[in-house]
Every structure is written in structure tokens, then in C-alpha cells.
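#lab-general

N.A. 3:47 PM
ok so I finally got the sequence cleaned up, no stray characters, all 443 residues accounted for. can someone with queue access submit it? mine expired

B.Y. 3:52 PM
send it over

N.A. 3:53 PM
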Amino acid sequence: MAYTAWFECFNENCRKRYSLTEVIYNCGECGSLLQVVHDMDELSKTSAAEWVRLFDERRMRNMWPYGSGVWRLKEWVCPEVADTNVVSMFEGESNLFWAERLGAEIGLPDLWIKLCGNSHTGSFKDLGMTVLVSMVKQMKAEGKEIRAVACASTGDTSAALAAYCAAAGIQSIVFLPTGKVSNEQLIQPIANGALVISLDTDFDGCMKVVQKIAEDKTIYLANSKNSLRIEGQKTVSMEMAHQFDWDVPDVVIIPGGNLGNVSALGKGFLMMEKLGLIKKRPRIVCAQAEKANPLYRYYKTGFTNYAPIQAQKTYASAIQIGDPVSLEKAVKMLKEFDGIVEQASEQEIADACARGDKTGMYTCPHTGVALAALFKLVDRGVVRREQKVVVVSTAHGLKFSKFKLDYHERRLPDVESRYSNLPLHLPPDVDAVKRALDERLKG
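B.Y. 4:20 PM
back already:
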């Protein structure tokens, strides 16, 4: 079948359409953000049962490009890309971890963690970048001049862009705020051959610069303002439902910075609902760091009075954003999904990471934001014992080892390391070791 998709203006009073191969990020008529829209009438000609069968057949197989968690859903994601132009690293299909011990600790037996950091570059950003870079490769194959693909980043976006561009043989450019990304995040784009530009500003400042640079149409913008990214990121919802045998959790909690992930999550659930694969919607919770919380502040006004802020330094560095690009889309989704916005202090973030780790996880600080929000909602009775809850873990904890070590060594400013677990330094003496073990293993 001839499945198609296009860019469409997000403004309901405009809805102007553009080809996915056009270098455009805002509507040329009204200036609003764009969204990718699929021909749902054509997709609806295939029954829900047939889609389920097809997706099951492709899952974890080697037939190109359908083994990927994103590209097995190709008709729903980006049918405009030829299979030969797909740039994939078997992204997606990440573990849905039953957090049995942590759930028991907080009185939530049906708690799950969607480990999106178990991906090629260690974050959920791979899901969107495979779509965007594949479309760039398609555009170049059709003769469009694109010299490079650029992004502003606090770490994970730059890593994903650099890796996928390197695989495709396309130059990447990344703008990073000086001193605000971990060494593990910084080395990823360097190693993958990106042109790395370090700016003495924050993410919002980097974003302003890259948008100006991308006015040159031969430099393609890769931030989540580009809605191609959302098409890949929405597959988190679809994977989640598939892993629950096409059932849907009651609550999904996701950390939010630039807020593309919130709109992506909702978009995936809505698409499955429209095509008959699911029968209900979850409640979506967006969790923000207290020091970078413009959406939370907006939510507290009933979404009536928005003001960008100057984000302050937070351990959840990837969401240290004061003026999120995808705000309008995220708010629309939160309204459709009975959404909640919660915040977490630096103490709550650090402790939530440590609590998760002590029950078998290895959480990034952004996942700590989501876990801290969950703890608050459980304490207030908003999230109830009988509900199935999924926390979306957006990156691998190995990218933030210094943060974790500083916590356990009690070197994080203004944080009391309540769950610190330091090595015991002992002489190489068996009796001394036995005494220490006996002391530690009491009761």
C-alpha cells in the first residue's frame, strides 16, 4: 500500500502541509511549529490484528530494516524513507524492567522501568535520530545539498547525532554549553567525528545559536523542534504496549526538558488508539527538576500564564532548559492525557537515584527526577497501589558516573548522601576482614 506522511502546521487555524524532504522547521504561513501527520485513512485499511501480526513477525529479526524497534513500525514512523537509506543501529527494543524491590519499598507492586538508555549511544535520543538522519540520507539521495546536520545539546542529543551521522557518512556539528556536560557525554561526539563547538552559555543559548546557523538550508537542524525526531521517539509508547501484550499502563512518568519526549509519548498512544491496537490511555506525568521547571510553573497556573525562566544548574543536566521548544505540543498532550507535572529538588533527585540503584538499577539523574516525582505522587495518594506504573528511564547511568561517585563520597554540594555506600578500607588480614563482615552482616 502507498503509505504517506507529511509535515503539517500545528496551528489548528492553518494546517498548511509541506513535504518531509523540505528543509523547514516552522510553518511558512503562520510561524507555528510543524508536526508529522500520517495518512490515517490508508493505515486504517489494515486491521489492528493485521498490524499486530506484522509487528510480531518483524520483532528482533534481521530482515533490513525491520529488526530495529523503530523501523519495524516503518509504516507508522516514516514511510517516505527508502529501505536503502535507513540509518539504523538496532535501536529500541529496550528492556521493560519490573522494579519489584523498589515497588515493594514504596507500596507499588506493579512498577516498571522502561530502560531507554539501553541503546546504541546510551539514551532514548537514538530513537528519534535514526529517523532524522535517515531522512537526511534520503534527501541527499534525491539531490538536495546538505553539508552537515547540527544540534544544540546538553549531551545525549549530540551523542546520538554524531553516531548516526558517522554511520551514514554525513558531517555532524554539535553546540555544547561549556562545562555543563559530563566527560562521558562530551567524548561521544568527539569520538564519532563531530565538529564540536563549545559555547560559554547554557542550552538555551546554544539553541539560539544553532537555530540561526540552520537558517543556512545546507545545514540541517536536528533538535526536537524538528518533528521528524518525534516520530522515532513515539515508538517508546508502542514498545511499552507491545511488551504488555498490547495492554496500557495506568500511569507513565517521563522527565521533561525541551519536552519533545512528552509530545512523542502521547502521540504514540493516540496513534495506537486510533488504529485499534489499544482501548485506553494512560495518565502522563512530566517530571522536571526544581531548578529548571518552566512547565511545572505553567501547570501550577492552570496553563494560563507561561513565562520562560533562566534555568539554574541541576544534576539533571540534560533537562536544564528554561524555555522549552516543544512546550505547546507537550501541553496539548498533557491536557489530552489528564496530565500532571511534578518537580524534584536536587536532594530528591540524588536520593531517588541512590534508592533505585540499591534495588538493581543504575539510574541517570534524569530518571532520578522521574522517580522522585513518583515517590511524591505515591505519598500523596495520586498514584495508587493497584495501578500499573511505568517510569521512562531516558539515559544510561554510566554517562553520569562522577555524579554517582560524588554522591557516595559525600561531595555533592547541598546534598545529604543518605544512602551512601563507600568501600571498606581494611588491611590484607583475614581476621580483620572476618570481623568487618560479621559487623556488617548482623541481623
